[in-house]
């Protein structure tokens, strides 16, 4: 999928080196096709890393995609330069009168807070409510998934006894669902969180369907019955090194943290972890863009 992103976005050169098809605005405008418009609400602190991770995945099918990055107006990130935000991001005020084919709401390291105590919770609620009528399909990741389950379906998160960090096996509950078409019956995926959601509450909710579950990590892929909302409780978008970087960061902060499970080869932190989830990550994003965005979105929103 050729992705149309701002010319000077730092991720552009890395994507080109990785042979990801990046298109400039001139070439995009010359193609007589209707591109998909994807909005990314990036709540992660290290925004440039998340940009690169998501753009890799959005650039891997035959569709043309225009990307718009969104950040919160009610809270200013402290881990990215204001110049970067001003150059490549916009706020909800400037997109609320538009319609988008897809929306991605990322995770955020704020699980210790009640949802109502998050500084931008009211703004996020407004965006989630707006998405019901202005977005064809919404993909929610990690804390973003928990926020969606709470706001749209009334399911609250609960605190774990320790951080869930590592790469875990998951089992499909229904391989016929389009989102997981092509998945292996058992597959691996990384998690990094302090909270979780109840499998029983998901299964008892008539508006939700649990598609993948892990004995160690719990509920993983949840789909709303109307297929508009997709909730992913882990981080399929993570690079091979991401969990290790988070582990080192927490150690430097003096946090009493365990080594990520099933991650470092032979639990040796000097050895490079392997990405054992990449193919399923690409497949999930490809299935989402094809079946839930491209096949469902009207050619002309009006």
TrEMBL record:
> Which Gene Ontology BP annotations are present?
L-methionine biosynthetic process from homoserine via O-succinyl-L-homoserine and cystathionine
Catalysed reaction equations from the record: L-homoserine + acetyl-CoA = O-acetyl-L-homoserine + CoA
Q: Enumerate the active-site residues.
A: 142 (acyl-thioester intermediate), 235 (proton acceptor), 237
Q: Which GO terms describe its cellular component?
A: cytoplasm
Write down the position(s) of the site called Important for substrate specificity.
192
- The entry's substrate-binding residues are 163, 192, 249
* GO MF, one example: homoserine O-succinyltransferase activity
Tell me the route in metabolism or biology where this protein functions: Amino-acid biosynthesis; L-methionine biosynthesis via de novo pathway; O-acetyl-L-homoserine from L-homoserine: step 1/1
Which Pfam families does the annotation name? HTS
Instruction: Output the superkingdom of the source species.
Output: Bacteria
Q: Where in the cell is it found?
A: Cytoplasm
This protein's UniProt keywords = Acyltransferase, Amino-acid biosynthesis, Cytoplasm, Methionine biosynthesis, Transferase
- Might you give the EC number(s) for this enzyme? 2.3.1.31
The UniProt function text for this chain reads: Transfers an acetyl group from acetyl-CoA to L-homoserine, forming acetyl-L-homoserine.
Stored HAMAP family:
MetA_acyltransf
What family is this protein classified in? Answer: Belongs to the MetA family.
Tell me the NCBIfam families matching this sequence: metA
Q: Per its record, how is this protein called by name? A: Homoserine O-acetyltransferase
């Amino acid at each position: 999928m050729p992705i149309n992103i701002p010319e000077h976005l730092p991720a552009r050169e890395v994507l080109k080196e990785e042979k990801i098809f990046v298109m400039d605005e001139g070439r995009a405008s010359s193609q007589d096709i209707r591109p998909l418009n994807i909005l990314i609400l990036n709540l992660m602190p290290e925004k440039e890393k998340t940009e690169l991770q998501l753009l890799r995945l959005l650039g891997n099918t035959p569709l043309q995609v225009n990307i718009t990055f969104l950040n919160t107006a009610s809270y200013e990130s402290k881990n990215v330069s204001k110049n970067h935000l001003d150059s490549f991001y916009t706020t909800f005020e400037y997109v609320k009168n538009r319609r988008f084919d897809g929306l991605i709401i990322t995770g955020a390291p704020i699980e210790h807070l009640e949802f109502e105590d998050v500084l931008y919770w009211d703004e996020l609620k407004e965006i989630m409510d707006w998405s019901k009528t202005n977005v064809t399909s919404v993909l929610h990741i990690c804390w973003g998934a928990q926020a969606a389950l709470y706001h749209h379906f009334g399911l609250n998160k609960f605190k774990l006894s320790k951080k869930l960090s590592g790469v875990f096996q998951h089992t499909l509950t229904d391989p016929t669902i389009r989102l997981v078409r092509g998945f292996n019956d058992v597959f691996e995926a990384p998690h990094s969180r302090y909270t979780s959601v109840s499998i029983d509450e998901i299964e008892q909710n008539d508006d939700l369907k649990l598609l993948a579950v892990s004995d160690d990590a719990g509920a993983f892929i949840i789909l709303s019955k109307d297929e508009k909302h997709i909730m992913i409780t882990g981080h399929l978008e993570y690079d091979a090194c991401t969990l290790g970087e988070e582990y080192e960061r927490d150690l430097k902060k003096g946090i009493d943290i365990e080594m990520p499970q099933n991650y470092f080869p032979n639990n040796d932190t000097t050895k490079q972890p392997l990405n054992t989830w990449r193919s399923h990550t690409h497949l999930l994003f490809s299935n989402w863009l094809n079946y839930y965005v491209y096949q469902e979105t009207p050619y002309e929103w009006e």
